[in-house]
Every structure is written in structure tokens, then in C-alpha cells.
Write a structure and sequence with these properties.
Largest sheet: 2 strands, antiparallel
Structural class: alpha+beta
Number of helices: 5
Strand content: 5-15%
Number of strands: 4
Helix content: 40-55%
Number of domains: 1
Distance between the termini: 34 Å
Order of helices and strands: EEEEHHHHH
Strand order of the largest sheet: 1-2
Radius of gyration: 16 Å
Shape: globular
């Protein structure tokens, strides 16, 4: 189970399936497209914030941390997307959609956790 804040600020409880891979001997979580790994707000809200919108159901501190997080991970995510397109000989858009980037990076196993950058103490001190 996972809690997520939707686009209007309501808390939604999601049932997340856990799948066991016999090949790699690990558990994997099947996340719907509306979820961004390690984020509390839905993908729609985070996408609006990354595009500069302030009309979202978040506090200003949350908006600031998401903008900081996106500024750090976006170049890495775009390079992962470029590498995947070259590896699999698939073209990608020059300006891919937020959900497209998140899905490609998460499903390829290249998701990085930048908790040290996105924590409240680091954001407030820097």
C-alpha cells in the first residue's frame, strides 16, 4: 500500500503489487503511471511544478524541493533516455514528456535516489 496526494490535494491510498523475479531473485513494485518513485505527490502535480506552475496543492517548501530535485536529476534522466534510445535503436523526442522520462528511467533500473539533495535540512540550509 502506498499513499499519494492527487492533483487536487486529496490523499489516495494505492495498492501496489509486489512481483518476484525468478531471474534476478528480487522483489519489484509495479507502480502506476500516476506515481513518481520516492515522491508523495502525483506525477501530474510534479510535472506542473517542473513546468513552473505554482497552482498546485503543495506548500511552497515542497515546490522548492521538487524544483531542486528536478534540476539535479533532469540531466541524468535525459542522458539515460538518450542511452536507451541508442541502445534499442528507438528515436526519442527532443523534449519528451515528464511521464515518458520517469517511466523509461524507472523501468530501465537506472533510477537514482538523491535523498541527500532533497531533504528539508539541505534545502533550507543552502
Amino acid at each position: 500500500m502506498r499513499m499519494m496526494v492527487d492533483g487536487v490535494g486529496r490523499k489516495v491510498l494505492l495498492h501496489i503489487r509486489r512481483l518476484y523475479c525468478a531471474k534476478c531473485k528480487r522483489l519489484h513494485h509495479e507502480l502506476p503511471d500516476c506515481v513518481v518513485p520516492y515522491k508523495r505527490h502525483c506525477a501530474e502535480t510534479i510535472e506542473k511544478i517542473t513546468k513552473g506552475s505554482q497552482d498546485v496543492p503543495c506548500e511552497s517548501g515542497t515546490i522548492r524541493r521538487i524544483v531542486l530535485w528536478w534540476g539535479v536529476v533532469m540531466p541524468y534522466f535525459l542522458n539515460v533516455l538518450k542511452s536507451l534510445s541508442e541502445k534499442y535503436k528507438m528515436p526519442h523526442h527532443l523534449a519528451p514528456a515528464f511521464k515518458e522520462i520517469v517511466r523509461a528511467v524507472a523501468n530501465s533500473g537506472n533510477w537514482i535516489f538523491v535523498g541527500a539533495i532533497c531533504t528539508r535540512s539541505v534545502s533550507l540550509s543552502g
